[in-house]
Design a protein that fits this description.
There is one protein chain. The protein has seven helices and no strands. By secondary structure, it is mostly helical. It is globular, with a radius of gyration of 17 Å. The termini are far apart. Pfam families: DUF2752 (PF10825). InterPro entries: DUF2752 (IPR021215).
């Protein structure tokens, strides 16, 4: 099975965008703009920890880091998988539930809700002062 040119282009654009924003110090565009962690917050740190075989830290940074590769494969081969929609809905539900659990855990230092630290808030606050 071959990966289509469109899939390669999409993955390349995502990777280039990620590298570009990382290089200017923005680790997450959603958190940068809103001050609120996204559902994937900690994913990069989890992968880096997993590459060092530090799976305890990897699961601490994001407990679903391992689900990314099967999800990418699911999308790449979506035309060949008859139960794609069920798998996709299940993965989205797992991410949402995990995100909500992490958001409401007071001692989770990875996922945060700090809108006042977001770029949008700071710009609006500056404009109205």
């Amino acid at each position: 099975m071959m990966i289509s040119k469109n899939n390669i282009k999409a993955i390349s654009v995502i990777l280039l965008f990620y590298i570009a924003i990382e290089s200017i110090g923005i680790t997450c565009p959603i958190k940068f703009l809103t001050g609120i962690s996204c559902a994937g917050c900690g994913m990069s740190r989890a992968f880096l920890a997993a590459l060092k075989l530090d799976f305890v830290s990897a699961f601490h940074f994001h407990p679903l880091f391992w689900l990314v590769i099967p999800t990418v494969l699911l999308f790449v081969f979506r035309n060949k998988i008859t139960f794609f929609k069920i798998c996709f809905i299940l993965i989205v539900a797992i991410f949402i539930i995990t995100y909500l659990i992490r958001m409401f855990q007071p001692n989770d230092d990875i996922v945060v809700f700090e809108p006042q630290a977001g770029f949008i808030y700071r710009v609006i606050h500056k404009l109205i002062q």
